[in-house]
Write a structure and sequence with these properties.
By secondary structure, the chain is mainly alpha-helical. The chain is about 55% helix and about 5% strand.
């Protein structure tokens, strides 16, 4: 027979996964501060980013898409009264700026997550061209006329820009500590990678590790052509 303390420990470990939380209905321990009782929450919003208890971006993406769809409906009502440049300005103010805000948290996200945001981009592009859902030419409009990147490419662009600011000493110290060049590593100073401005990628095992800036930032930076890294 299993000891009661061992059983409780097993439940806590099992509840750490998403399936375990659903099966056991585990909501986490509460915190007592004097007469107040702080209960756990499934998600919390920090600086405009919704962080779930399982660190998945699903809740943040869903709330962003809901807000963008609301503003798209409002803009469709006044589309006939606006010219193309005015529509582009309003879309940047209400749609693209929301999707690009802190979008580095979507590094390593699944295609299902990024596709939800991409559908919002497609709807915004159709609003500019005043076309319907199944009309052709949407890809040409996104890339040639509007010069909009797909959501995964926008995330990679933001990561590369953040890494470049770290290498130029224009970023916070806690981010610069994760951008370590091979030229500063004693065991790799004489390697060819040291002269190519490559960054060291720490070892990681789990999915959350690949999404961290310490891994995602140097990984995306090392994938850039040599001509862009050596600017």
């Amino acid at each position: 027979m299993m000891h009661p303390s061992s059983t409780k420990k097993t439940e806590l470990l099992w509840a750490g996964s998403r399936h375990g939380q659903t099966s056991l209905g585990y909501s986490g321990p509460s915190l007592h501060l004097g007469a107040d009782n702080v209960v756990p929450s499934d998600h919390v919003q920090v600086l405009g980013v919704t962080i779930s208890s399982d660190l998945s971006p699903d809740k943040h993406v869903s709330m962003t898409c809901a807000t963008c769809c609301f503003w798209l409906r409002q803009l469709r009502r006044v589309r006939r009264s606006l010219d193309t440049e005015s529509v582009k300005t309003l879309l940047h103010a209400f749609i693209t700026s929301r999707i690009d805000y802190c979008n580095t948290v979507l590094a390593g996200a699944t295609k299902y997550v990024t596709d939800k945001l991409q559908r919002v981009f497609s709807a915004a592009a159709r609003l500019v061209s005043n076309t319907k859902k199944f009309d052709r030419g949407l890809s040409h409009l996104l890339h040639t006329d509007l010069h909009w990147l797909e959501v995964p490419k926008r995330v990679q662009f933001k990561l590369c820009m953040t890494v470049r600011r770290c290498m130029q000493d224009k970023a916070p110290q806690y981010l610069k500590e994760y951008c370590i060049s091979f030229s500063y590593t004693d065991s790799r100073q004489r390697l060819r990678s040291a002269s190519r401005h490559l960054l060291s990628v720490p070892r990681h095992r789990r999915t959350f590790g690949r999404r961290a800036f310490a891994v995602a930032g140097p990984t995306v930076w090392n994938c850039l052509p040599d001509g862009l890294r050596n600017l």
